[in-house]
Amino acid sequence: MNSADRKFFYSGRKSAITEHAAALIIAEAYCAVEDHGQFSLVLAGGNSPRLLYEKLAQGVPTTLFEHFALAVPGNNTEDRQSINRLPPNTWLFQGDERCVPFDHPDSNYRMVKDTLLRHSGIADDHLFRMAAEKDDSEGAARGYEATIRTFFSTEGSLSPQGYPLFDLILLGLGDDGHTASLFAENREALQEQKRWVVAVNAPQAKPPGMRLTLTLPVINHARNVLFFTTGNEKCKLAKKIFLEKERSVPASLVKPESGKEYWFAAQP
Fold first, then answer.
1. Is the dihedral of CA 94, 98, 102, 108 positive or negative?
2. How many domains does the chain have?
């Protein structure tokens, strides 16, 4: 399968696109559990995925799997009717975090906990939080990388290049084309090839300040990468990046090595 056959773009009204994205994530979760016993999901921060997380926690109608031609395990209708929310053996990670206290209004962790974790049935200890509130941001980045390395320490859980094989990484898209906390101005972070997690200073971000983020090699070795963005202007930018008409922004550097790449552009 060439790269063009592994790229998909969907756009439409926010409610429909959100349901489609949630159904796809849940379908991938159960396929991963059937294949290797667990589902590793990296979560995006910011405000765009809030409704998506609420939908994942609430669950989706099982009719959506057939409607969107999504493969799910199960040999009969009764089995498939139980597949409408993320499975209990889902493990959650953060793709990036602002260096603020975990209960701060700008904390990505707080948003995830309020929208997804609290209502999903997934155990609290299945979310690996970035301890970004620490004074030593570099140390916090190394600590989170160590956490990922421990999780992926079993045989067959790393790519041939030695990167973790996350089942699905969810990404957002900024107005300036940044994704996770990878900004155009942070060239060193964009060029990183060895480290899995880095600390970046982002004075241009909203809000400005230090952040932790996964690096591009980690993102590009995931089994699935899913961009979810909302708003007319971001949807236009997403389409340009998908069509490779915009190649100068960080999000355009997301090119999965062998995984699938999904774009969900939700319009008002």
1. negative
2. 1
Alpha helices in the chain (DSSP H): 14-36, 50-58, 63-67, 77-81, 108-112, 118-120, 137-151, 187-191, 216-220, 232-242
DSSP 44: P
Joined together, the tokens standing for residue 161 give 């290049």
pLDDT in tens, 182-197: 999 999 999 999 999 9
Q: Please tell me the predicted confidence (pLDDT) of residue 42.
A: 98
Residues of the chain scoring pLDDT < 50? 76, 78
What is the C-alpha separation between 140 and 199, in angstroms, rounded?
A: 8
The domain of 142 spans 3-267
Q: Which tokens hold the place of 260?
A: 């699938």
Say which CATH number the domain at 249 has. 3.40.50.1360
Q: Indicate the SS3 state at residue 17.
A: helix
CA torsion, ordered 89, 90, 91, 94, to nearest 10 deg: -170
